[in-house]
Amino acid sequence: MKQRPIDVVVLTKNSERKLRESLASVYRNVPVNRLIVVDGGSTDGTLKIVEEFQRKHGNVVVLTDQGTRGSARMKGIRSVETEWFMFVDSDVVLCDGWFAKAEKFMQKDVGAVWGIELWAGMKHPKTLKLFLWITRKIFDIRGGTHDLLVRREAVEDITLPADLHVFEDAYIKEWIEKKGYKVVACYDPYCIHHRPENVWTLRGSIEIIADAFRFGSLRKIPEMILAYGFYTAYVVYRGLVQKIGA
Prior knowledge:
By secondary structure, the chain is an alpha/beta fold. It folds into two domains: 6-195, Spore Coat Polysaccharide Biosynthesis Protein SpsA, Chain A, CATH 3.90.550.10; 196-246, no CATH class. It contains nine helices and eight strands. The chain has helices at 19-29, 46-57, 69-79, 98-102, 125-142, 152-155, 168-178, 202-215, 221-245; strands spanning 6-12, 32-39, 60-64, 84-88, 92-94, 110-119, 147-151, 182-193. It has an eight-stranded mixed sheet with strand order 3-2-1-4-7-6-8-5, with helices on both faces. Strand 2 (32-39), helix 2 and strand 3 (60-64) form a beta-alpha-beta unit. The longest helix is centred in the last third of the chain and has 25 residues, at 221-245. The termini are far apart.
């Protein structure tokens, strides 16, 4: 069966670190109708990398939004033309056959399909198993847009708050569900998330938790403590292992 082309929305801002690898994985594993890049005012080589893909594929649209992630995602959503579209983060690499694996979940009652994220470099089987379980729980709490396939009809009337810089993914997930659609979370397809270096510090990890509590729902705090507490513990563990091996 011929795969249906979809628009792919990528938010960027000084994303050169992994952008080329990320976009290559998109074109390799997704039938791209148009690549819609919403840039937040990059000053590094991000837009030069985007130009490379425009020269190669000829279907790249570049938009500018220097507001929040909420306003950037809204601009991306408003620019989508296909029945389904996809959000892909600029620092993730899609697994082989991502779209082919997701297609079987694109049923009439489904509004979005999310592929679980794996952190690059995580290899210990027991740690990985626990990580996947925790990450799945986090998605239930707050959603995720690392690699999210979305039915356009499910969000065509959404209005993300312009000041929403964190938890815009939760807003999108809850909106889709309120519209009566299912949001399917998968272990396969998946993506590899190449998190920035500052995240691998205790301070960076604590800042992520602080943002989650600042912008999250109070009723979700007990679940968030369990989930983000595990992430912080892993960062500390990873740091200790690297010091011992040095």
